[in-house]
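Hello again, I could really use a second opinion on something today. I owe you a coffee for this, so here goes:
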Amino acid sequence: MARARLRLLGVVIVLGLAVTAFALSAIGIIGAQTVNVGANPNPVTVGHPTTITANLVGGPYGGPYGYGYVSYSWSGLPPGCPNPGNVASFACTPTTVNSYNVMVTITTPDGPYSGSFMLTVNPVGVTFTETGLPTHHHAWTVRFAGMTQTPTGTSATFPSSSGTFAYLITGPSGFQVMTPTPQGMITVGGSNVNQPVTFTRAATFGLNFHEVGLASGTHWCVTIGAPVCSTTGTVSFKAVTPGTYTFAIGQFTGMTTLVKVGGVWVKETGGTQAVGLVHDVPDHNTFQVRYAFPVTFSETGLTGVFTWTVVSMSETGTSSISTLTMYLVNGTHGFTVHPTSGLVPTPRSARLTVTGAPLVVTPTIVFHTRR
């Protein structure tokens, strides 16, 4: 009987050891499965290809043993790297500079395993290199893709993504830009760009924008290559080479932006306007900007083919329909309605007040014969 107990105890002990060994082995298999994920090369230059790869290491589904049993799900990829779906490795070409947390989930019969890594997409460099300036000279300025540098040396380098970007090169005072055109566009692909700049000694001028209509201290900008901003009424670009330039004036919600070009008020729509810089008439180098609101006049009494006119803020508005719209800044303004087609208006003159919103003028202007 004692021997039986011993044998039974021995079996229990052996079985216990066997179960324990199996459990430890199973834990080791699952715990050893890890996700390796990365890219080559990393960092990668924007516009250049990289290969992104993930694999499961260890366990029954690691390496080639997982073929047909695992699936892949990707997220966090940069622009230029569309989601490849259920693949372990793929190549792509990032198009935007940044750092990206790329994540992959590998699903096996045992469950999902996740891994991630940081993919760094570095910019290419756009370098402007000058010749023609004296060794000891004042700084020159390059505005490119919304950035500004004022080097005192011979070059300025900007980081850039792929795309086409505007630039403006100016000064120092008394030195004109001969090549390239002082304002233009540069297309950046996957390689560094070097843009030579040649200066020559000749007269330069200021290009100024003067605004009315904004509250005192308002921050506003004009963009030629990069924004130049001010909290006063004037934005200035200094040491500009005579030529033709395009510009964009900052917009404000609810307000209409107009700029006076060639004696005519032109509505800014958020795009660009062409400005001819007339180097021999310096007064033409200041452009008037008006931040205003639409003011609408209505008339009755005119028939057939007609044109009627309203004058306010030294500006003239005309219309050949029953409504006429002008753009006036905040404040109180007088206006005058001109007689037309042998008819006189009532009222002929009056005052109106613009208070930060579009205005419909009342009463309606009535044209009638002289009484």
Remarks:
- The first helix runs from residue 2 to 32.
- The two ends are 141 Å apart (CA to CA).
- The mean pLDDT is 85.
- The domain at 33-122 is CATH 2.60.40.10 (Immunoglobulin-like).
